[in-house]
Amino acid sequence: MPQYYSDLLDTESFRLATISLDIDPHTEAQVLSVTLTTYGLSEGTEITYNALSYTWGSPRPSDAEADSGTVILLNGQAFEVQPNLYDALVELQASCPETPIWVDALCINQSDPIERCSQVSVMNQIYGKANRVVVWLGKPFPELEAGINAAERIGTESVPHTLRMIQDQFWGFNSDLSMMPDKYGMDPIDEEEALGLVTLFMSNWFARVWVIQEVSLTNDVVILCNGKFTRFDYVGYTAAFLHYSGFFQSTLDLVPKDRPGIYLRGDVYIFHAERIQLLREWCKGDKSQWNRTLETIDFEAGLGGKNEKSAEMVLLRFLFTLFGLQASDPRDVVYGLGGIMKHMAAKDGLLLPSEFEPDYDIEVRDLLRNVARKIIEETDSLVYINLVKCPSMRQTLGLPSWVPDFPEVIFNTLSSAQFRSIGTINSSKHVPHAPNQRPFNIDGNILNSFGIRLGTVKKIGETYLETLRGQRSMSGDILLSMDEVYPYTGQPADEVFWRTLIWDTDFTNRPARIIRHGDFQRAILEEIVHPLRVFHREAESPAAGEALVLEFLGRMSYLDDIAAKYPSSIFPSVNLVKSCLDFLPQEAVDLHDEEI
């Protein structure tokens, strides 16, 4: 068996790779050759080196996983690497061959669990001391390059507007890209840029939990694509702008769904990219132009002012911000944050508890339970259990029902990062670390707590994915079953409903201010119309598409019932939906003046 590694690394040393071209002694063909050199971590600041951030598997959702890798020479011997890493090595050898680089799959002996654990525990130092972190999103192709170029433009121009929206604690509910020049002085995103941005944000890299520490601990982070280095911050700034302005949905809708070679799916990681950037800015500290702005965002679920600084609070901040990120080993939901937690905890003179240190011998359920117990007991709050999701999403066997297991799907939580001015929900009136007549406690797998029965859930609405397919009948049924005035607040029932629909927890103003109702109505209309257009376009023929859409419209009579009961409802009438479909002429339907 080939001997690639001549020494065993501990927490005081690491290896760097030098990439060159050589001749394979067996095939006599030119091949990539990687030579490893061991250094002490204390020498890290004296060595100029880069670190690679990439995905071990496929970089794109449409790429099939390769059954076998590609061979390189590692310390002179044949060594198999995955195709995505091979492509990255080819580009690195062409772009910056003179600079040593740290690559986890090569510089760590992955077959040695002792070395793996020790190196994982010092990855914050390895990335933090790197001169530059190079992000690899996969082999270049036109749409990916267009997305990076679009992000460079938007990221450069949008920062002042994004900072203003956050500082003003107000979202821009925009749905029309043509408004960008008037509102923000920016050229509208066109179809080519939209396709590029969606392609960019569909890169699997954005869904990896490990990338947080890889891009947050050094200032110089770039994306390498076709020999060009682009600042990573531009991508994060673009994601934040698309989110806070509201243009993200319009950008998605602009993408042609029949573009050959482009695979579109639900997990476009715009929100992941934004959250990665926010944490990157947090780690920059005073060096970040976002520093003062970030103080207006609550990352600690309302607990920051009620608890002393602690390692548990640092982890709470990360877990509430980064839900939905993926890891091939479920334990890496915690361990993948270990390096950056050490970095941020050290700033406050804190040490990580032993439960947070890498230990790949521990069962997943035991790790997640131990982490949940530490956070709940340290914060003296049950806020953490807000991260527990539907039982159908839970994958960890034997996990107590009160312990989150972090499914690989993005979801909303009432305690996620949001504007501080909004405030936090605390129906129990519990004050952490204050005398409590009804304390809660954890006994093994059991969380003991007092509760109050509020009532029975009688109706539920659609899931998020069902709403994306234009389904709203269950939501309509809820609204139609309500009295016109909600007795508990005196508000119109349709207003209570849509505030619930958008998770309105803004306690800044009571009674709550009416948002731009027209913009919200247009957004709901577009969410209903868009899937109908897709059904029509993807049908076998125009006639079949029209029949399918008409059949769907026939099941939407609840919209007219809502319009009759609530004339100012956010829901459109069936006639308004018909008028927005290209194959139904507007003159064929009757619209009220308000709808027109």
Describe this structure in words.
The chain is α/β, with parallel strands linked by helices. Helices cover 39% and strands 10% of the residues. The protein has 23 helices and 13 strands. The strands form 4 sheets. The chain has a 5-stranded mixed beta sheet with strand order 6-3-7-8-9, sandwiched between helices. It has a 4-stranded mixed beta sheet with strand order 1-2-4-5. Helix 13 (311-321) packs across helix 16, helix 18 runs parallel beside helix 22 and helix 20 (517-538) crosses helix 21 (542-554).
Radius of gyration: 26 Å
Please tell me what the overall shape is: globular
Structural class: alpha/beta
Biggest β-sheet strands, sense, barrel: 5 strands, mixed
Q: How confident overall, as mean pLDDT?
A: 84
Q: What strand order characterises the main sheet?
A: 6-3-7-8-9
Enumerate how many helices there are, as a single number: 23
- Please report the distance between the alpha carbons of the first and last residues: 75 Å
Helix content: 25-40%
Strand elements, count: 13
Instruction: Give the number of domains.
Output: 4
Low-confidence stretches: none
Strand content: 5-15%
